[in-house]
Design goal:
lyase, eleven-stranded mixed sheet, 18 strands, binds potassium ion, elongated, alpha/beta, Rossmann fold, 19 helices, seven-stranded parallel sheet, binds ligand NPW, NAD, isomerase
Amino acid sequence: MKIFSAEQLYEADKITIEKQQITSEDLMERAGTQLFQWLHQRLNGAPVPIHIFCGIGDNGGDGLVVGRLLIEHGYNVVVYVVNCSDKRSKNFLLNYDKIKNVTKNWPILMKGENDFPKINSEDIIVDAIFGIGLNRCPGGWVKKLIQYLNESKAFKLAIDIPSGLYSNSPLEDYEAVLKANHTLTFQAPKLAFFLPETAGFVSNFDVLDIDLDLEFLYNTEPIAQLISKPEAQRFYQTREKFGHKGTYGHALIVAGSYGKMGAAVLSTTAAFRIGAGMVTAFVPKCGYNILQTAIPEAMVITDTEEEFISTVSFDFEPSAIGIGMGIGKNKATVAALKKLFKDSEIPFVIDADALNNISENKELLKLLPKNSVLTPHPGELKRLIGEWKNDYDKLEEVKKFSEKHEVVIVIKGAYTITVYGDKLYINTSGNPGMATAGSGDALSGVITGLLSQGYDPLLASVFGIYMHGCAGDITAGQMGYEAVMAGDIIDNLGEAYLDLFAKPETDNEANGKN
Ligand SMILES: NC(=O)C1=CN([C@@H]2O[C@H](COP(=O)(O)OP(=O)(O)OC[C@H]3O[C@@H](n4cnc5c(N)ncnc54)[C@H](OP(=O)(O)O)[C@@H]3O)[C@@H](O)[C@H]2O)[C@@H](O)CC1
Ligand SMILES: [K+]
């Protein structure tokens, strides 16, 4: 699914109106009807009090439409107009008139703190104050209203975007954003929904299809791509009937040090489970028995050193190398990295201490093999590119880094973002249970295993992250978030493959919705 900027959505809006020969009021009615249907399906006529807070732009207009439709269907609705400006949009005014035709209880005009209504915890708040037209930080009593609504225990449903949040630019005031329990967004999710600093305001979201012009949506380059099951299905490369183990490559995993040999075990197993034909683990001597016992399928080469890696040498041509998991920061290990990067042209997956070693020895940056995949978590990323001002600044810096060094960067997080040049791919699978030791080692093994099978570095990253997340979701479904361990995620990679083409069990899944 594509993520568009606010500007692109306004353009889509304009083109849709022209091509479908409808008015902007018709389009708003379409949007409001979708909102109404979503609520009606869930409330089923329940007389729960619904408080709709409308701004004075088109987001407020959406609020008025859904308010009118709810009133027409007998719901218990109070509509408020948040008088944040003397202006009124055309569609707001048209729908303001229309709502007066269906109720004697006209919208209540709010001008200040004295107008804040009493809201009970069982009520529903619909937030239609600001949408993607927010052009400055909410202040004064409007900010106080947002805070007042945030303090309420009532369920908060945001229309299009929580008020106070910009769809694709940095937030100035965290105290002036509505914290929604659910967001219903039109046509395409917004970038702010996926970034660590702002995703929490959105909570869960649904995308409501308002039939914007398909040709425009299809032909327009988005600001980011969302990766869910339909995309992952397209990335999957079928296994050949007459393939042999050589067809699926020979991955080399360079990992482990004394006390951290588990990292090597996990990434080697993950490379196998995702489908690598052969995997060799290169480990310090102390890892020999551990590896041979834990994964008899793997071949093992040991370093000359007992407890850490000092010189990586092997006598075959790996199709991909995954390096860094649990290797520590010994000087000899840094020298080994340097030599390995210098001598190799095949793509690497570079993780954990390999990244930290690069950050502390910036001369290694120049040696990074092109098309390598770097998989930092936020701390490792900071050490690599320096501090950032906000999430958008971070994305810009990572794009520059990716372009300069011609590498793929995987920014790990609740929504892991893969950056390649100026392109962003946001993963949707995965869950909080996966925040557990070794989960990252598993991911590195997965990406290395896919690279070794011939997936290109970008596809191996984007597809691998989806599969890793999906295996995590399957695991959480079996045992709950708390019990998930990295080994379980790896064990479920097979289930994740089966799930990729399993028949959908729900309508939402069938529609490819989130
Ligand atoms: N595009 C689509 O596909 C569709 C879009 N639709 C809907 O339209 C929404 C966008 O509507 P929109 O453009 O009218 O902007 P919106 O967010 O209502 O607010 C703008 C108003 O707020 C004001 N204002 C801004 N910041 C402020 C502040 N801090 N403090 C105080 N005031 C502030 C600003 O006032 P001004 O700056 O002019 O004084 C302006 O009047 C979109 O989110 C979706 O819900 C659907 O109906 C159909 C399809
Ligand atoms: K809103």
